[in-house]
Design a protein that fits this description.
Blueprint lengths: L1 H27 L4 E3 L18 E6 L8 H15 L5 E8 L3 H12 L7 E6 L1 H9 L15 E5 L5 E2 L1 E4 L3 E3 L2 E2 L3 H31 L1
Parallel strand pairs: 2-3, 3-4
Antiparallel strand pairs: 1-6, 2-5, 5-6, 5-9, 7-8
Amino acid sequence: MKNKFVLAVLFILPIVVYLFFASGVNNFGKLPTLTENIQDISSIDDRVVLKDKITILGFLGHDLDNQKGIAFNLNQKIYKRFYEFNDFQFVMLVPNGSEEKVAELKTELGNLADNVKWNFAYGNEEQIKYFFDGLKTDLSLDNNLATPYVFIIDKDRNLRGRTNDEDEGTMFGFKATSVAELNNKMEDDVKIILAEYRLALKKNNANRKN
């Protein structure tokens, strides 16, 4: 009798656990929308587009040498894990005149991983401030037009984040100077939004077959 009970537990428990997590992904696995329909960055630099892309958006400012730590953290902790997914990209908005420094940074990033999904958009000070303000966050740019925070933008140009973070409550962006925050929060949220689109794609494909 005892052996049968143990075998039943070993057989049933994995199924229960699977159903629990499967239900969680389907019902709770959506990242909250914090700001809808932000400006497309193509209005500033037509070489870069947010629409129909899952974007990690950042603002590196004038002093790119001092922002390399942020770029390398993102490259190692987020970019390398996800850049092979379709429609996924990094976009960094930088001031006009930063082209030489950007080329140096891209070369250094390319030594660590394929930098094909690292995109840089250029704008003037007024354009960058206006674009950042359009995100409607509780954060701000510094005097160099930079911020250590990066943002998740979905394919419909909505800012995604957290509304009930255990530390901050509403969380508009992720602090890229914190490896722990990238590992423990941002990585999970990028997984969630990628899973959203994979699930939607599967449903669309299934509907077409039916």
